[in-house]
Amino acid sequence: LSGLDPAQPYFQGTPTEVRLDKSDADFVDIIHTDSAPTIPNLGFGISPAIGHIDFYPNGGEQMPGCGKNPVSQIVDLDGIWEGTRDFVACNHLRSYKYYSDSIIYPDGFLGYPCASYDLFQAGNCFPCPAGGCPNMGHYADKYKDQFKKDFLKLYLNTGEARDFPLWRYKVTVTLSGKKKVKGYVNVALYGSNGNTKQFQITKGTLKPDNTYTAYIDAEVNVGKVTKVKFLWNNNWINPTLPKLGAATITVEVGQNR
Length: 257
Hints:
Blueprint: E1 2-4, E2 29-31, H1 38-41, E3 53-57, H2 70-76, H3 80-103, E4 112-113, H4 117-121, E5 152-156, E6 167-177, E7 181-191, E8 194-195, E9 199-206, E10 211-218, E11 225-233, E12 244-253
């Protein structure tokens, strides 16, 4: 049984006979997309973990792309009716859109086991465990024999619009150069399956020999990494023409470590 943002009003806090629960089937997976409190946040979805595995994309409360103003959202989508409906219940309805996207991305929507979304964002739950990360949506049942007893909370990020899946990488850059400068460092990944856009690894004071780490959620699974593009900019014209490079760049793939 797959629960697509099961309802919070009238159901949260009720006995298991009343609401969806992991005792209802051999394997119950849940996608939480609108689990903020109903009062005052108008969250429609239940927030506690109630399945064998519970996915909390983007933390489970506010989905990317749902904060747009009503006019742009209504015009952007597949028609006036769908746009109006999505504006009213955008977070709640993201659950079925993630699920339908998951059907065509068997390797996408990896849920990282973690105690909280903040810890996931900070990289504390990276990479996937040795047994792999369950896939949110259609292919979640690949993991049905691994998780039978305790509740398992899984976190991931998604894109703002279709296609929704993102793939998580840890990028570590050690700088080289003569002296520190102010600016930012960007990195793009190139691989056998495609290339990513540029991601900012750090900004502020850039010191040679220092190491900077960032967790990036790429819009493409690059496959085998073949090249890394390193760019830095100090944002203003400096007559001393400072030079900065990358002594090393390390890329760790969340999916297969």
